[in-house]
From TrEMBL, chain A:
Residues 140-169 are annotated as: Disordered. This is DUF4267 domain-containing protein. The chain crosses the membrane at residues 116-137. Keywords: Membrane, Transmembrane, Transmembrane helix.
TrEMBL record, chain B:
The keyword Membrane does not apply. The keyword Metal-binding applies. This is Zinc-dependent alcohol dehydrogenase. One of its GO terms (molecular function) is oxidoreductase activity. Residues 25-157 form the Alcohol dehydrogenase-like N-terminal domain. Belongs to the zinc-containing alcohol dehydrogenase family. Its cofactor is Zn(2+). Keywords: Metal-binding, Oxidoreductase, Zinc. It holds the Pfam family ADH_N. It is an enzyme of class 1 (oxidoreductase).
């Protein structure tokens, strides 16, 4: 990775010697991985719905599988975006929809019942990952941050007005400023 | 040296990189004593600005001590000088620089050919802001090479702290230029969308320039509180109807002057359905920017008023009512900041105690904590409004 980054540098510009601490946390990486998984699964559902319905004994439901595929791709794209938490939440809703569809296929007369059971177990496993990632992202990126914030080396003095001489003296204090001709717009009222 | 390096979307790392060296006689090298994370760095963090490459060093709000000077810059600088580095790199001699339009300097963009193709005509080189603005390594680092250093610097007089002058690099002149672009008159109401660092500076600038009333619009209590401390009437757009309140506060006529200090990443919420559509389009790359604030200020601005846009936009926007702009006779002023055009005057005002820009700092941490502070700043955690990094 650094080799690629360094090869793109202009002559004389600093090159990476060693990579250090980064802004991406484990929760972000898990969320992204689930996003890519979502896109992969969604593409399979969109492009090969017949194979999927056949393996689950759900022949005739190809349209539904395609719709689920489109939903998976949308969730995946959202999970890879900066709105990752929303993407994970949409994945959780999708997990519930997947379980509902598979439970409907878990009929006694379904010759592929074993495959449906296996699929249900896989959905359950992925749901656990979705819940873990969703909670971890909330703790890391929610406005009420659960993790400690790096400590300030120089605490601020407290006055937030920005006007050392007070607000009253500040009002109009820069009226001596001459607006340059190219920044003038409004003719003065006569 | 250590530097904050962009590796991809939301992936900034505190890496060890090779030290910069003098490459041109007009260069200088500074040892960075303070730098800051800018709101516009978040657009890079989110990979919304094209042409960032893994390995790019972040940062365009920087100051430090000169440690090496190229032969052609020695008349202007010497070792030991304390300087603030304007984020717009300027040559000082091209036609645009001679007019004071430093942010569109014709000389300093190292990737002029590429930028000409994208923009029609290239702007100036900027520090740490993608290949389109010259691919210059940024200043969130221990050392920085300052190109065209004989022109691209603001000397710091004795007696001023780093915190008092650091923001001459960007947000103070940016807020000031936004207010100056409004050509404020004593009877004017100036409405400012966004109470981030640039919005805060625009509020103070509008107050200093003598606006009758300054109205600040945001949703975060800490930002609205800081805006009120600076003399603004505040509107929380999650609680107030912005259009109705602005009309109420201006006798039904709307504000004469409107400033967009939000830019391309306006807040997305169910209460503003257009923002949902914009976000969806942005995710699938049908639109670059979310222009909700532009739409709102075009609608509410008084006819013959001025729209001043310091907020960063990157490319294409949809559903912006050009018909309203035309029929209401609105003037639009925008652009990157011509930093050096304003800094002599602003430095004097800091020295005279008219303004102290350090009010905006909420967090001051070591460079190694920079990557995590990108998250804290982006997520608006811990009351974070402005992060200063001390390498």
């Amino acid at each position: 990775m650094n080799l690629r980054a360094n090869s793109a540098r202009m002559k004389g510009d600093p090159r990476i010697l060693r990579s250090g601490r980064g802004s991406l946390g484990a929760a972000d990486r898990l969320g992204r991985a689930l996003g890519w998984f979502s896109i992969g699964l969604g593409l399979v559902q969109l492009l090969a719905p017949r194979q999927m319905t056949r393996s689950l004994g759900m022949q005739g439901q190809e349209g539904l599988v395609r719709a689920y595929g489109a939903r998976e791709v949308a969730s995946g794209v959202l999970s890879l975006s900066v709105d990752r938490s929303m993407g994970l939440q949409s994945r959780l809703l999708g997990d519930a929809a997947d379980v509902a569809m598979l439970l409907a296929a878990l009929r006694r007369d379904n010759p592929k019942r074993d495959n449906v059971m296996l699929a249900l177990a896989m959905v359950a496993g992925v749901t656990v990952l979705d819940v873990v990632a969703s909670q971890a992202l909330k703790a890391r990126h929610g406005r009420e941050r659960a993790q400690p914030v790096p400590r300030s080396v120089t605490p601020h003095r407290g006055d937030r007005s920005g006007f050392p001489q007070g607000l009253a003296r500040a009002r109009g204090a820069a009226r001596d400023f001459v607006v340059p001709p190219d920044f003038r717009s409004s003719p003065r009222p006569v | 040296m250590r530097a904050l390096v962009w590796h991809g979307k939301e992936d900034i790392r505190c890496d060890t990189v090779s030290d910069p060296t003098i490459e041109d006689p007009r260069d200088a090298i500074i040892k960075v004593t303070a730098c800051a994370i800018c709101g516009s760095d978040l657009h890079l963090f989110h990979n919304l600005i094209p042409a960032m490459k893994p390995g790019d060093i972040m940062g365009h709000e920087t100051m430090g001590e000169v440690v090496e000077v190229g032969s052609a810059a020695q008349g202007a600088l010497k070792k030991g000088d304390r300087i603030v580095v304007p984020f717009t790199i300027n040559c000082g001699s091209c036609e645009q620089c001679r007019r004071g339009n430093f942010s569109v300097c014709e000389t300093t963009n190292r990737n002029k050919e590429m930028a000409d193709k994208v923009f029609g005509h290239a702007g100036a080189g900027l520090f740490g802001y993608s290949a389109l603005t010259g691919a210059y390594p940024g200043g969130q680092a221990e050392y920085l090479r300052v190109p065209f250093a004989d022109q691209t610097h603001i000397k710091v007089p004795d007696g001023l702290t780093d915190e008092q002058v650091l923001f001459l690099s960007d947000i103070l002149p940016t807020g000031w230029q936004a207010a100056v672009a409004c050509d404020i008159e004593p009877e004017d109401t100036v409405a400012i969308w966004g109470c981030g660092p640039v919005g805060q500076m625009a509020i103070r600038s509008a107050v200093l320039l003598g606006a009758k009333q300054v109205i600040a619009i945001d949703r975060l209590p800490e930002r609205l509180g800081m805006a009120a401390a600076g003399g603004a009437i505040t509107l929380n757009f999650e609680e107030d109807n912005v259009i109705e309140r602005l009309n109420e506060l201006t006798g039904g006529k709307g504000p004469q002057k409107c400033i967009d200090a939000v830019g391309l990443e306006s807040h997305v919420s169910l209460a503003q359905p257009d923002t949902l559509l914009d976000r969806a389009k942005q995710v699938v790359m049908l639109e670059n920017d979310r222009p909700h604030v532009l739409r709102e200020m075009i609608y509410v601005c008084r006819p013959a008023g001025i729209l001043s846009i310091p907020g960063v936009y990157s490319g294409l926007i949809d559903k912006v009512p050009m018909g309203l702009i035309m029929n209401k006779g609105l003037t639009i002023r925008t652009g990157q900041t011509h930093v050096k055009r304003w800094t002599d005057d602003l430095l004097r005002r800091i020295q005279e105690g008219q303004i102290d820009p350090s009010f905006v700092i909420t967090h001051s941490v070591g460079l190694q904590d920079g990557p995590e502070m990108y998250n804290v700043f982006r997520n608006k955690q811990d009351g974070c409004i402005k992060v200063v990094l001390k390498p």
